[in-house]
């Protein structure tokens, strides 16, 4: 943690960045905070609490496009930054990332495949967790059983929009989930399955499998399983995995010369 | 979207009394205006018979059909959705239907994972001169949906 503070202090002192987005320990709880000066850096912490920091960063950079910012990134944050960069939401050249490797405990809890960014200052790289969680069991169900399972799950939804609000890649200022034709206002639970399927389709070729949506869901709908499944489909059909490389574009984000895999 | 809202009325009203004991599915057809809609027109002009279960909605390009439209159709109780556009490489907008060709397989997988048979969503290419083909495709697709039975989403909302 000291290494992180020293690095951030140096970056701020050299004026390499105008602010550092990290976690501040306030009243015993870590929460996102933009550190703009060397003072107060003793409250900068690394903890197992996750926040969609890159989503906050996207808002910051859209407001101050000329400024350079520093940000604390985990493995998932780094992947989301890459996807945001491809969508022209952040500019990686205007960012200084300070990597943090997650603890083994956190990696286990998140079911994370790569619980560390490409470069990190803090922590030891934990071993990734393989396996798709509930995916196999849901895929193993018969069709009508699966339908009933999902309708039951979606019926629990209280339409809090937590999944969208916590998603680092949901940056639209106008959201389809608030479209009164597709999702009539004032109805809880929202129309199933369309509400969740719209969101699911919006994650295609973009979801970096951070699991914040499922973590935020107050009623425990296994949302991540759907996005995981779609991630597999995209990888099989188009050979694309989101958040891996800065080059290449998500297959559904452009028309392309050829309809299928060859276009890469 | 407004067309779909209009179709909602038709979905509930369209009860086709042809075979009394036969299940008559409701199929929404999204047809691209340059090829498939003209193909449907051609089928009509050449007096080809096809089941009246399909409710055609004309769109400017099959690439314009967002998955939202397809999902909304299913949510409103359609038993099947048929998406038809120009043959690959013959799109009026050059590459519009490549997007459809990329999108629909993903939507199918999503529907299948949700427990809706992916066969309820059809994708086909019909050119403006293929009236016969359009009639044949609709016959085949209607038969396919008839075998699958009513959508489990019928009556949900």
Q: Features of this protein?
A:
heterodimer; A: 264 residues; alpha/beta; five-stranded mixed β-sheet; 10 helices; 36% helix; B: 157 residues; four-stranded parallel β-sheet; 5 helices; 15% strand; globular
Write up this protein:
The complex is a heterodimer of chains A (264) and B (157). With 264 residues, chain A is of the alpha/beta class. Chain A folds into two domains: 2-110, no CATH class; 135-263, no CATH class. Helices cover 36% and strands 10% of the residues of chain A. Chain A has helices spanning 2-13, 53-63, 75-86, 104-110, 135-139, 143-155, 162-166, 194-202, 212-216, 223-238, and strands at residues 19-26, 29-35, 44-45, 69-73, 95-99. In chain A, strands 1, 2, 3, 4 and 5 form a five-stranded mixed β-sheet that branches. The model of chain A has no long low-confidence stretch (mean pLDDT 91). Chain B has a domain at 24-117. Chain B is built from five helices and four strands. The interface between A and B is large, with 39 and 33 residues.
Outline the fold blueprint.
The complex is a heterodimer of chains A (264) and B (157).
Chain A: H1 2-13, E1 19-26, E2 29-35, E3 44-45, H2 53-63, E4 69-73, H3 75-86, E5 95-99, H4 104-110, H5 135-139, H6 143-155, H7 162-166, H8 194-202, H9 212-216, H10 223-238
Parallel strand pairs in A: 1-4, 4-5
Antiparallel strand pairs in A: 1-2, 1-3
Chain B: H1 2-13, E1 27-32, H2 36-45, E2 54-59, H3 67-75, E3 80-85, H4 96-113, E4 121-125, H5 131-148
Parallel strand pairs in B: 1-2, 1-3, 3-4
Helix pairs in contact in B: 2-5
């Amino acid at each position: 943690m000291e290494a992180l503070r020293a690095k951030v202090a140096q970056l701020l002192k050299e004026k390499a960045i105008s602010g550092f987005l990290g976690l501040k320990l306030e009243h015993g709880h870590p929460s996102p905070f933009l550190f703009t000066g060397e003072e107060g850096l003793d409250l900068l912490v690394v903890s197992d609490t996750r926040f969609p920091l890159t989503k906050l960063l996207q808002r910051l950079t859209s407001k101050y496009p000329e400024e350079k910012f520093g940000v604390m990134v985990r493995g998932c944050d780094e992947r989301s930054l890459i996807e945001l960069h491809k969508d022209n939401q952040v500019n990686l050249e205007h960012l200084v990332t300070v990597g943090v490797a997650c603890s083994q405990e956190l990696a286990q809890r998140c079911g994370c495949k790569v619980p560390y960014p490409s470069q990190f200052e803090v922590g030891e790289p934990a071993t990734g967790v393989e396996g798709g969680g509930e995916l196999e069991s849901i895929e193993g169900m018969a069709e009508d059983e699966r339908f009933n399972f999902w309708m039951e799950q979606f019926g629990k939804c209280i339409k809090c929009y937590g999944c969208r609000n916590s998603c680092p890649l949901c940056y639209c200022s106008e959201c389809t989930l608030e479209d009164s034709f597709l999702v009539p206002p004032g109805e809880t639970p929202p129309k199933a399955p369309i509400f969740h399927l719209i969101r699911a389709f919006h994650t295609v070729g973009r979801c970096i499998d951070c699991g914040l949506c499922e973590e935020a869901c107050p009623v425990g709908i296994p949302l991540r399983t759907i996005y995981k499944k779609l991630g597999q489909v995209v990888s099989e059909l188009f050979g694309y995995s989101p958040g891996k490389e800065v080059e290449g574009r998500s297959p559904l984000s452009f028309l392309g010369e050829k309809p299928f895999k060859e276009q890469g | 979207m407004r067309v779909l809202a209009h179709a909602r009325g038709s979905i509930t009203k369209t009860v086709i009394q042809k075979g009394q004991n036969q299940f008559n599915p409701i199929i929404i057809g999204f047809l691209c205006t340059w090829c498939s809609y003209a193909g449907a027109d051609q089928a009509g002009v050449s007096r080809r018979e096809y089941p009246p279960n399909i409710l055609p909605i004309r769109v400017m390009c099959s690439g314009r059909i967002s998955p939202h439209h397809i999902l909304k159709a299913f949510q409103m109780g359609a038993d099947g959705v048929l998406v038809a556009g120009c043959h690959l490489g013959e799109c009026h907008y050059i590459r519009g239907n490549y997007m459809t060709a990329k999108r629909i397989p993903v939507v199918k997988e999503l529907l299948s994972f949700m427990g809706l048979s992916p066969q309820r969503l059809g994708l086909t290419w019909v050119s403006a001169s293929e009236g016969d083909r359009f009639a044949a495709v609709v016959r085949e697709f209607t038969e396919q949906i008839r075998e699958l039975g009513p959508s489990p989403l019928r009556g949900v909302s």
